[in-house]
């Protein structure tokens, strides 16, 4: 391919609003173009990378027994009303009406649609298990699109679904998909961790996330050198609390004017922050029902909403606003506490609260706190549990200290169970002739965000550095001076020889200065660069490895074999 025929609008500077390295370099290298906030065009180079990612995905999914199909992006709202997600999914859902005033959505994911197809198509366990998937654009009305194509309103995703008549079928499909995902990410050449994860709005209880460590990652991975890894929402650590032995003192109410935070209350009362209860009021929703829930923490701990949601078994958990706090407790956030709270508010407390004696807490009276509050004597706790975020350095279940790193979610697999099939009526006759709900699994990969994740891990100050498996081209051939016939002739001969050997070649035939060509080549990030320069008359070219910057000189007739060896070495490095 001649570079003069490609749309590659490289830039010397990145846009001022570009924060992430991947965003900056993909703009500068001419891979992406912003149409509007969170909406991007994938220019020819990016599109070639996407197609290579898709090819790897299709290959590994086929090996795992999954079959590709395609669903519509425009979905009837009634289907989502059946599952309950039309109301609970949130503001990220694109809602629209057709000319007959019927409600539709742009699909952010397709659990309901796939489930409805299986419901109407399969009636017997003999047709199961079945795994189907698609590669399709999804639409989510992100409030803050950021980091280029990492978080946008439209993006390509693999979403796959398994359907089984029993748990054994689900387990087998899940394990096959888990291995397929490892194979996909290994072949792409991205560094990733497989972590315990929260299912969020997807439903189901068992899930694993594939996360790529990166500075701009919006998730926190808690991991150890012993192999433990979990999303911060699911991470646990060994309980190290010790029962306090002080005698319970008399409950007293103290004025704490202007103390709205734990630290402010601690300073006002002259107490340690961890002896003060952080009392947070939430509203838990399940279907159309809602319930106020107070969660108690030590002052310096943070509430883990995912753990609370799991403990309650609710669909949605939302921090109560001031109006709700006043309605149920008679005070504003910052002055809330469990003393005197009625049975209409459920109270959960973290395990570390159980060992405390003579705690301070909000008095449900603005500007006042209690001191010497004790469990059972002064307030009740309906349920204890692990409801806190772990902290770096704590001991993980495997006995090793926890470390934290930001990560980008690139894949997620779920054991959904009957979460959707029961609601949508997807049933089959089992081997005993009984109707049973189909048991589902769900499997997703962020295809376009993979480009950002790879770029975050591999790009340098000069541009992108693509792994050989997904690079837009294998080799970049650059004749330094296109006015020199011998350079042009050799470049064309190399193009033909490399193409005949099965490599994809980009030839920079532009009438540009050598410095411009080299700078653009580094920006584009093709693994191997072959420079045809002053020694062309002697039949010698320079080969540069983009990843390492190492250069070697070889004879023209040795180029194909040398490229073969270098690309094999790069592939082996990516696998390791």
TrEMBL record:
UniProt-listed PROSITE patterns: AA_TRNA_LIGASE_II
As for subcellular location, the record says:
Cytoplasm
For this UniProt entry, what is the primary localization, expressed as one broad class?
A: cytoplasm
Q: Which reaction does it catalyse?
A: tRNA(Pro) + L-proline + ATP = L-prolyl-tRNA(Pro) + AMP + diphosphate
Determine if Aminoacyl-tRNA synthetase is one of this entry's keywords. Answer: yes
Enzyme Commission number(s) from the entry: 6.1.1.15
**Any transmembrane segments, and where?**
none
Q: Mind telling me what this protein is named?
A: Proline--tRNA ligase
Q: What is the UniProt domain comment for this protein?
A: Consists of three domains: the N-terminal catalytic domain, the editing domain and the C-terminal anticodon-binding domain.
Q: Give the family, as the similarity comment puts it.
A: Belongs to the class-II aminoacyl-tRNA synthetase family. ProS type 1 subfamily.
GO terms of molecular function: aminoacyl-tRNA deacylase activity; ATP binding; catalytic activity, acting on a protein; proline-tRNA ligase activity; transferase activity
Set out the biological process GO terms recorded for this chain's protein: prolyl-tRNA aminoacylation
Coding gene?
proS
**Which keywords appear in this protein's UniProt record, sorted alphabetically?**
Aminoacyl-tRNA synthetase, ATP-binding, Cytoplasm, Ligase, Nucleotide-binding, Protein biosynthesis
What is the stated purpose of this protein? Answer: Catalyzes the attachment of proline to tRNA(Pro) in a two-step reaction: proline is first activated by ATP to form Pro-AMP and then transferred to the acceptor end of tRNA(Pro). As ProRS can inadvertently accommodate and process non-cognate amino acids such as alanine and cysteine, to avoid such errors it has two additional distinct editing activities against alanine. One activity is designated as 'pretransfer' editing and involves the tRNA(Pro)-independent hydrolysis of activated Ala-AMP.
Q: Which organism is it from?
A: Limosilactobacillus frumenti DSM 13145
**Assembly description:** Homodimer.
């Amino acid at each position: 391919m001649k570079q003069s025929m490609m749309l590659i609008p490289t830039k010397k500077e990145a846009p001022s609003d570009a924060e992430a390295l991947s965003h900056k370099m993909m703009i500068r290298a001419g891979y992406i173009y912003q149409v509007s906030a969170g909406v991007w065009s994938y220019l020819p180079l990016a599109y070639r990378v996407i197609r290579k990612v898709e090819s790897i995905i299709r290959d590994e999914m086929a090996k795992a027994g999954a079959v590709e199909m395609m669903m519509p992006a425009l979905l009837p709202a009634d289907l989502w009303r059946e599952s309950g997600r039309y109301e609970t999914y949130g503001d990220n859902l694109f809602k629209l009406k057709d000319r007959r005033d019927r409600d539709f959505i742009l699909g952010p994911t397709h659990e309901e649609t796939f489930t409805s197809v299986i419901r109407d198509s399969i009636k017997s366990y003999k047709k199961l298990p079945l795994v189907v998937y698609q590669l399709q654009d999804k639409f989510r009305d992100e409030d803050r699109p950021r980091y280029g194509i990492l978080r946008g309103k439209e993006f390509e995703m693999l979403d796959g679904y398994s359907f089984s008549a029993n748990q054994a079928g689900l387990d087998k499909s899940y394990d096959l998909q888990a291995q397929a995902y490892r194979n996909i990410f290994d072949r792409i050449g991205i560094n990733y961790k497989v972590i315990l994860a929260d299912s969020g709005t997807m439903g189901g209880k068992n899930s694993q996330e594939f996360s790529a460590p990166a500075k701009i990652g919006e998730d926190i991975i808690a991991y150890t050198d012993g192999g433990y890894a979990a999303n911060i929402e699911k991470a646990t650590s060994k309980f190290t609390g010790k029962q306090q032995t002080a005698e319970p003192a008399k409950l007293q109410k103290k004025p704490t004017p202007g103390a709205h935070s734990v630290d402010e209350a601690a300073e006002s009362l002259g107490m340690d922050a961890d002896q003060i209860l952080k009392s947070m009021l939430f509203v838990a929703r399940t279907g159309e029902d809602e319930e106020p829930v107070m969660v108690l923490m030590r002052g310096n701990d943070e509430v883990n909403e995912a753990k609370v949601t799991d403990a309650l078994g609710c669909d949605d958990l939302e921090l109560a606003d001031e109006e709700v706090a006043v309605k149920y407790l008679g005070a504003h956030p910052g002055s809330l506490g469990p003393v005197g709270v009625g049975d209409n508010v459920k109270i959960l407390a973290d395990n570390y609260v159980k060992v405390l004696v003579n705690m301070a807490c909000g008095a449900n009276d603005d500007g006042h706190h209690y001191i010497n509050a004790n469990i059972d004597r002064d307030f009740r706790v309906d349920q204890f549990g692990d409801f806190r975020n772990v902290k770096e350095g704590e001991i993980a279940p495997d006995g090793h200290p926890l470390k934290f790193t930001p990560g980008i979610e690139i894949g997620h697999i779920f054991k959904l169970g009957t979460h959707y099939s029961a609601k949508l009526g997807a049933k089959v006759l089992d081997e005993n002739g009984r109707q049973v709900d189909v048991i589902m699994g769900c499997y997703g990969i962020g295809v376009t965000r993979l480009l950002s994740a790879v770029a975050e891990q591999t790009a340098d100050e000069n541009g992108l550095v693509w792994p050989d498996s997904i690079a837009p081209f294998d080799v970049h051939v650059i004749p330094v001076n296109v006015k020199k016939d011998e350079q042009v002739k050799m470049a064309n001969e190399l193009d033909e020889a490399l193409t005949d050997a099965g490599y994809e070649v980009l030839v920079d035939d532009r009438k540009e200065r050598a410095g411009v060509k080299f700078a653009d080549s580094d920006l584009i990030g093709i693994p191997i660069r072959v420079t045809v320069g002053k020694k062309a008359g002697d039949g010698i070219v320079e080969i540069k490895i983009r990843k390492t910057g190492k250069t070697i000189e070889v004879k023209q007739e040795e180029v194909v074999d040398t490229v073969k060896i270098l690309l094999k070495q790069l592939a082996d490095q990516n696998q390791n």
